Structures are given as C-alpha cells and as structure tokens.
Amino acid sequence: MELNNDEIRRYSRHLILPEVGLAGQKKIKGASVLCIGAGGLGSPIAMYLAAAGIGKLGIVDFDTVDYSNLQRQILHTDADVGRPKAQSAKETIHGLNPNCEVALHNTRITSENALDLIRPYDIVVDGTDNFPTRYLTNDACVLLKKPNVYGSIFRFEGQASVFAPHLGGPCYRCLYPEPPPPGMVPSCAEGGVLGVLPGIIGCIQATEILKLALGRGSSLVGRLLLFNALDMKFRELKLRRDPECPICGEHPTIKELIDYEQFCGIEPASKENENSDEVTVQDMKRALDDPKLGIKVIDVREPFEFEIAHIDGVPLLPLSQLRQRFTELDPNQQYYLLCKVGARSHQAAEFLREQGFKYVKNVRDGINAWSEEIDSNVPRY
After folding, report:
1. Structural domain harbouring 38
2. Comparing C-alpha atoms, which of 176, 187, 123, 109 is closest to residue 153?
3. Residue 19 lies in a domain
C-alpha cells in the first residue's frame, strides 16, 4: 500500500518518527477500525484516527444529534442537531481527511448483527455508554479474535484498557464478570460528565489503536488505566485473565452471542411500557391539575438540578436524603416520584415500597419528558 505525494506531505510528522516512518504509515493506512459509538468517546477517537491516516473507519451509531451532546461530542456542530450521528461523523471525518474511507453503519449493534459488523475490521474500539453493548462487543471480539480497545467515562473519572485474550490478556468479563444491577450505575445523562473528559480517554484509546496498527510500544493489554480529572492523577491496575471466564477461560461456556439486555437485567421496552409501577407525565399532569385525586408528586433529584429546572408545586426530597427523611412521608398516601429521566425515581419508589409504602409510582422518563410533552418552558438538560 503506497502513499501518494499529498499523503507524504500530510503525514510528514509521522514519517520523520523512526518508530513510524514510511513503513509504519503504510501500516496505519492499511488498518481498518470499527468505532462503536459516535458520541463523547467516539468523537476524539474517530477524528484523531482519521487525521493520523487510518485507511478505513467504520462508524456504528443509530442515534441523532441532540443539543446536550454538543458539550463534548466534537464530531457534531449546532447545525447537526436532529441529524443522524453517523452521517454527521462521516462529513466531519471527510473534512479532516478525505483519504480516510468511512463506512457508515446507521444501526444499533445487536446479537444478530455484531459478528457481521465486526468481522471485516482489524480493530474494534468501544465508545459506548451502556452495559449490554459493552458485554456484546466484548464477546463478539473474543469470538472473532479482534482486539477491543475499551474506554468509559463518568463525571470526572475515566478508564481505558485493551481487551485481547488472543494476545495473552484478559477480556472485559475477566474484569467485570457480572453487570451491576439495573439503575445502580447512573448514566452520563443522570450523573453528568466533564466535557473534556471523553477527549482525554478517547485520545488514549486512539493512541492504543495506532500502536496496535504499528505493532509498537507497550499496549494496555493486561492493564487498566484509571484517570481522575479533578485530581489530575493517573493510576494503573494490573489485570489478569480469569481461567474461569465463561468466554475466554480454559473451559468457555459462552460459544455464541446471547441476549445481553436480559443478561444485564433490562426488561424489553414492551414490558417497561406495561409496568404498573410507572406512570406517564400525562398521568402526573392530571394529578397536579386535580387535587381531588389525592396524589402527591415529589421530585427526588438533587438541589442543584432543581435549580436548573423544576415544576411549580412539586416539592423536592432528594434521593440522597430519602433514607434519613422518608418518615416525613405518609405511608398511606399515594405518591408519584419524579427525577430527570426515571432511573432515580425508580430507585426511590423501590426503597419506599420496602418501607411499607403501598401507593408509590415513578414517573417514566422524568422531567425531560415533561419538558418535551407537557411544558417546553421547563428547561431540558
């Protein structure tokens, strides 16, 4: 695979590195990478890989650009809001480097399509933000013997590693054999994330990919890099392959892809919609409009969120204080519990039921749904 004169000029700062040189740049050009996710992590990963000269970059993303993405997802601009992320990503990448072939996969990665999506690529990079997809990506990469360049972010902290049992290291399941209970770990939408953090972790992932393509340096295989942005500190943990791992161990029991939503304890959407313990924002509006129904609505978000957006007449009782203050509530009263997107209100409702409250329901999709469906004057954040 040769470089033309324009490419030699473009990659000149690589070519004069003895560790890269002309031969190394040809390896980078000959490499193909599948980036799962074109969001916070996927943005710096895709942009730096394209700029570095990766020959083929696959983008898997089924989502559309939202205003809340722009604080960190630098692949997209204000003009892209409402457009498919995959398409926006392709245009940005081609603007950076028209020599990079971009393959769009504007779809959700599933157990049915994962192997076909991953098989044509040399390296897979995980830029996702949910546990079912992380386990799915891991298992597919192990089965296909592809390196899985992992990263995750939350609030001010991030981590990165390279999972590659075929290169002698562990897989994601060796580190996390079981997913956390549903709702136990807040998403970035619930917990927030510092805008520059995915840039730092994503650049680490991109660095690992280039090293894998070059066959140079010491990779993060067998190591977990931890970063705390508030303290500006890196730590490193050694990882070992688990001989009892169900997919990469000595006697694997997982030999094909499974139902990862079920594995992570997430009910199908149809069941969620039928959940008798949930109500809609329309139900909540009826309760607020008609006091004779005898239903009280409580906001379980934190005070700083309440300051950003709140609904008149809905008092605040943060989930973080609920264990100490639940005795302030009447166990015989009917309550609707509200948070940002429904996860914390679900936790609060479960806790109150454990304390003997019989008439507690959480408001599905939270105050964001109220903003979208009931009152757009309430800010969506």
Report:
1. 31-266
2. 187
3. no
Looking at the domain assignment, is residue 80 inside a domain?
yes
3-state secondary structure of 47: helix
CA angle 338, 339, 344 (to 5 degrees): 110
Rounded CA-CA distance 371/377 in Å is: 7
Asked if residue 14 belongs to a domain, the reply is no
C-alpha span between 184 and 179 (Å, rounded): 10
User: With a cut of 70, which residues of the chain have pLDDT below it?
Assistant: 183, 267-275
Give the span between the Cα atoms of 258 and 252, in whole angstroms: 14
CB-hemisphere CA count at 13 Å for 304? 4
Q: Are residues 238 and 290 in the same domain?
A: no
Report the DSSP pairing between strands 148-154 and 56-60: unpaired
CA distance 107 to 293: 44
* Positions marked catalytic: 188, 339
230 in the same domain as 333: no
pTM of the predicted protein model: 0.84
Return the pLDDT at 225.
98
